From TrEMBL:
Domain GH3 middle: 299-363
Domain GH3 C-terminal: 389-493
Pfam families the UniProt entry points to: GH3 (PF03321), GH3_C (PF23572), GH3_M (PF23571)
Domain of life: Bacteria
Cellular component, GO annotation: cytoplasm
Protein name (database record): GH3 auxin-responsive promoter family protein
GO molecular function: acid-amino acid ligase activity
């Protein structure tokens, strides 16, 4: 019997039983905001926006919203974070020891997001809350004695001339794994620090028989490639041949469903899937109960949230933020409405438009799902297609054509005569069929704006089916391979042309 595992499982169950559910999540959110603005009151940002006065207001949330503007990355970086790299006490007390480089999906220079000691503590706190939620799942005691393989970007951080260390957030987190967790973490810091993605995966595949993995964590596209490499290296029929106790997979970063079928071909028995919402700016939500992939918003771990309706109340017809959008707090949101997320954090992000859209699926349980990115909004000729609508169209196409599509991208392209078309690329190893008509019909039926656009300026829908490996090789050619990197769903026309040129034999 797994004695240690039984003890650990019992401790988790006891901690979960003693944890009181949040009876008033808005009150907790208000408390989080007060803690944040009091801590940052002496900083340049806090002095400029009068944080001490805000904290003394009868309604500090309303005062905060009135006094502090909304920031996107460019505005925050240019006004504040650029100085934060060189000077202390700019948007948060002290000077960050780390800056997270956003993974990005284009050729642009990476963003630098401050990561403070308090932010790392917030991430750890949410991670522990997710671990405690495992008490709700029917997990064998043996699982709590096994190792966890976490696949991220390289843990080798770079020293910036300004003195801080920088790398992607998964690498920063790896360098700050608590000592007590080090014995369970795989592949270990040495392998995780290998820069080259293929070499790192090769080292993981070589060492895999030495490990007893019970849980996986990572973005599904890259986890899938890693598992294939291990299976091929050791001539296995499934990954369970080498890790028979593998029971849990914590996914995140992208929608999981497009990868479910292809991943399950690599397993010989079902896994428990847990979704997570971990970004460069913080850990915001996690799957807290069985039977759903929806995630519980982390309202009590140092982060304050606001929500902008992703419709005419918050954004114009091109998807750009209005000058004076409506902004809601947790007590004002409605289920089923799509919102762009604003965060204020202990890393000195204030009313920061992170770029993700979410919707609440259960207000009582504080459960959300990510619906897409604000920038993944295709509306060049009035089609008004959000990422959620694009995802739904691809899932419909899979069902109708009997395909498995892991990746896709679409762009609005213009020919020499000024005629517009939607150019799709679908990542599938199946042969190309009459796919454009299926996509076109579904979007016309489900989106009246798209139907109107197709009757006027949007002349054509084109589809190019490409092997997934071709898409990943294209990302690699743009130095965007592995770890946290994601395939963009909506591309600029020039990026789409670059991909199509790359794919030509």
């Amino acid at each position: 019997m797994a004695i240690l595992g039984s003890i650990v499982k019992s401790a988790i169950e006891l901690k979960h039983a003693l944890t009181t559910d949040l009876l008033n999540p808005y009150a907790r959110q208000k408390a989080q905001l007060l803690q944040l603005i009091k801590a940052a009151a002496p900083t340049s940002f806090g002095l400029y926006y009068g944080f001490r006065n805000i904290a003394e207001e009868e309604d500090p949330v309303a005062a905060f919203q009135k006094q502090v503007p909304i920031f996107d990355y460019e505005r925050m970086h240019n006004m504040w974070w650029q100085r934060q790299q060189k000077q202390p006490d700019i948007t948060w007390p002290g000077q960050p020891a780390y800056f997270a480089l956003s993974s990005g999906t284009t050729g642009k220079e990476s963003k630098r997001i401050p990561v403070t000691r308090e932010m790392l503590e917030s991430i750890r706190s949410v991670g522990l809350a997710q671990a405690e939620s495992l008490a709700r799942f029917d997990l064998p005691p043996e699982l709590f004695e096994k190792e966890i393989l976490m696949l991220g970007s390289s843990a080798k951080l770079q020293q910036h001339p300004n003195g801080h260390l920088e790398g992607e957030i998964s690498g920063i987190n790896t360098n700050n794994i608590p000592n007590w967790f080090g014995g369970f973490y795989r592949p270990g810091l040495e392998i995780a620090s290998i820069d080259n993605w293929d070499e790192r995966v090769g080292a993981i595949a070589e060492a895999a028989p030495q490990w007893d993995i019970g849980a996986l964590a990572g973005i599904p596209s890259w986890v899938q490639l890693m598992l294939k490499a291990i299976i091929e290296r050791h001539q296995l029929s499934s990954i369970h041949d080498i890790w028979p106790g593998l029971s849990v997979y914590a996914t995140g970063g992208v929608a999981f469903e497009p990868y479910r079928k292809s991943l399950e071909k690599l397993f010989s028995r079902p896994l428990i899937y847990l979704d997570t919402y971990l970004a460069s700016e913080g850990f915001f939500a996690y799957n807290a109960r069985p039977g759903t992939m929806n995630m519980q918003l982390a309202v009590d771990h140092g982060i304050f949230y606001e929500f902008i309706p992703f419709d005419e109340r918050g954004f114009d017809e091109t998807g750009a933020l209005l000058d004076s959008p409506q902004v809601f707090t947790l007590r004002e949101v409605e289920p089923g409405q799509e919102y762009a997320l604003l965060i204020s954090t202990p890393a000195g992000a204030w009313r920061y438009l992170i770029g993700d859209c979410i919707t609440f699926t259960d207000l009582e349980a504080l459960e959300i799902r990510i619906t897409g990115r604000t920038k993944y909004f295709l509306n060049v000729v009035g089609s008004q297609l959000s990422e959620e609508k694009l995802n739904a169209a691809v899932r419909h196409l899979e069902q109708q054509a009997g395909l498995s599509i892991n990746e896709f991208a679409v762009a609005a392209v213009e020919d020499e005569a000024g005629q517009f078309a939607h150019q799709w690329v679908l990542g599938t190893d199946a042969g190309q069929q009459e796919l454009s008509a299926i996509l076109d019909r579904f979007l016309k039926d489900s989106n009246k704006n798209y139907a109107v656009a197709r009757s006027k300026a949007l002349q054509e829908v084109r589809v190019q089916a490409l092997p997934n490996d071709t898409l990943y090789h294209w990302l690699e050619s743009r130095k965007k391979k592995g770890g946290q990197v994601k395939m963009p769903r909506v591309m600029k026309a020039e990026d789409m042309q670059d991909l199509l040129d790359f794919a030509r034999p």
